[in-house]
Structures are given as C-alpha cells and as structure tokens.
Amino acid sequence: MITLKGNSIYLRALEPEDLEFIYAIENDENIWEVSNTQTPYSRFLIRQYLENAHQDIYEAKQLRLAICKDQDFPAIGLIDLFDFDPRNNRAGVGILIHSEGNRNQQIGSEALELLIRYSFGHLNLHQLYANIGVSNDASVALFTKFGFQCIGLKKDWNLINGVYQDEAVYQLINQ
Q1: CA angle 154, 159, 162 (to 5 degrees)
Q2: Which helix (H) or strand (E) holds 26?
Q3: What's the pLDDT tens digit per position in 85-132?
Q4: Where is the N-acetyltransferase domain (predicted)?
Q5: Total structural domains in the chain?
Q6: CB 120 within 8 A of CB 147
C-alpha cells in the first residue's frame, strides 16, 4: 500500500487554506533563485492556482504537495513533481522547507522518501531528477542520501546576485 504519511510528517494535497503560505513562499525573494521565479505573485493568481490544484498529474503534468507535521494541518513546506512525462516515466523533483526553524530536522528527508516511494510505487516512474545549484550543499546532501547521482553539470546556468553559477543534474533510476 502506498502511503503519504511518515513517522513525523505527512504529504497532502493543497487546500484553499494554503493561500497565505504559498503567497509567502512565492513572494520570498530569498528563494527565487531556487524556484526560478522572477516576479511576485498576487493572491488572486495563487487563489486561481489553488482552484485548479485538483487537476490530475496526467493533466497538469505536475503535482505539488504540502508537507505537514503529524497532527498539525498547516503546511511547513512543499514538495513537487514537475515536468511529469508519463511516456518516458520520469519527473523532476523539487522540495522546500520554508522556515529555517523546521530545517535540519529530517523533515526534508522524510518528505523526499515518501515522494520517491509514491513516484516509483504508485506512478510507476522509472526515474526522477533534480536540478541543484552546486553551492546548495544541503540539497546535494539530501538527494545523494537517497541515491541520486550527479549526471551532468550546466555551466554558468543561473545568474545569482550578479554572478553566474553552475547547476548540477541529479538522477535516481528505479532499479
């Protein structure tokens, strides 16, 4: 049985009550570099997004789930499958724990483990990949912990604070 509940967190579909949380994330300039965001989002646009969040992954080609602490409904982070490609059985993965106070508590590890199990066990994906800036040591450690391997480097890929930085592609193949 596929479950999206771990020992201390669970993953759930987005709810209308997540509006302010997503608004805060999408408008946090400190994380725009990892989310490839360049402009702020209005509450109106996020409300529209949430109204369409019920779309099936096969229709939307993405799945965004809220990361919640056990027994606590409010989201503390988001984990995404994006660029879902059912023909080739692959998808990209992104994860964000918003508050620094919730980082380094194994929440990201548990969320990623749940998503990997769901992706391979329920969606029957063959591979997952992640694009990670080479200076993002926490993300590199998280993904390599689960067997993701660096398969390539995109030179000068992201312009961050006026400096071009490399981005690595990590891949996990379901054996």
Answers
A1: 140
A2: helix 19-26
A3: 999 999 999 999 987 777 878 999 999 999 999 999 999 999 999 999
A4: 9-175
A5: 1
A6: no
